Amino acid sequence: MNDPIDSRQLQIFLCLATKGSLKAAAAELFLTSSAISHSITNLEASLGVPLFHRSGKGLVLTPKGEFLRRKSIPLIAQMNNIRSALTGDSLADRASLRVAAGYNFLTYKAPDIVREFNECFPRGSLTIRAAERDKCLKLLLDREVDAVVLVDPPEDGPDFSYTRLFEDELMLLMHGRNPLAGLEIVPVADLNNKSLVVSRLQSYTTNHIVEQAKRKGVVFRECFEVGNTAAIYEMVKMGQGLALLPNWIVKLEEPSSLVVARPVSGIRLSRTWAYVEPTWKAPNLAGRTFKRLCLQAAYAAAGGKGALTHHHASSAPFASGAAGR
Fold first, then answer.
1. Would residue 2 count as lying in a domain?
2. Of 51, 67, 85, which marks where a domain is finished?
3. Where does 48-97 have alpha helices with state H?
4. Which residues form the HTH lysR-type domain (predicted)?
């Protein structure tokens, strides 16, 4: 009979898979790097499969390692629930959490996260609302939510700490017969006097795109507000303007000969999504679980490339990230 998986080894494995390096995992768990390495070696020997590829670029999960990482998140949450219940916290499976998130994350990533969260906490209470980047931070400061998911995490300050989830890049969408579609990369200067289709005129991302373009001498003829990504695609299909959407959303949409996507040169359109928590409050079990699920979703969005590091609030502005649509 096969031995059960050691829960401590499983926790160490998940931390290493999340952090991406022995040094970061050791700091998180207050262990030595050699202790982390020894635990992973024993776990791989016990399971009979390699969990990480070891290369000069660091540790990368194998397909079996990715499977174990995905399955271990709710499993560890359930084990923590059992421990809490046995030690007197009978409300562990009814834990509550309030979250605000950028619109695209809420639309495309949150459904799977919420479903798995509810499996971990059958009687739990999860409230998640959509908000623009600055509104998310205000809700957190006003203690109306416990955590937020947004792009362009806040700069240095005592109020927040953040965990980087993944990076994306805004791609230019246009009708397939648009002359710009013949270019592999579109220079930002070619966007001058073009119509831009956006979800919301007053979003942080829209405002920043417009401001960055102005610095390059580019002025859009007009911006159409259409409310959501599906409407943006329909407008582009009808040749009513150009749009800028994250690359991971572009990949999720059904391929169409009517719409093509191209990168833009001469302007920085990469962004960093982050999970932001207040420094004045330690996260509860529900918060820790939700963050792990966000990291799992981030790993998928990044194509299996974990951009998973923890910081106290510090980030360059939109040059390295722009806020969520």
1. no
2. 85
3. 63-86
4. 5-62
